[in-house]
Amino acid sequence: MPFFEKSKTLRKIKEKIRGVKRIKGDPLEGERAMASDFFERCKIFNTTVDTLSRIMEQLASANNELMESAKSFFPDENPYAPIRLTMSEALDHLKTTIRGRGSNLEG
């Protein structure tokens, strides 16, 4: 009997590194392959949702940075300064929408 088979802890470590042994004539081999594929896709989907959620949060927090930089283009005495207010309102609405829907993305 190999050394790994004697120790339960070492056997578990080996299985994590190599994977479990394939059973000859396994009647559930197809289902196991489908389940493995499904869980891999779930991991990819979860990573994608996490990335999207982070991006949306960054977009929602961009309002302050954009408005500060817009002040240099449209100072308060500039006749086009109301554009800055309109942009700020639109970005606030976007932020509210993103944060409101963000909870739907979190699993």
Automatic annotation (TrEMBL):
- Spell out the protein name for this chain: Uncharacterized protein
Reading the lineage from the top rank, the first entry is Eukaryota
| Protein's organism | Perkinsus olseni (Perkinsus atlanticus)
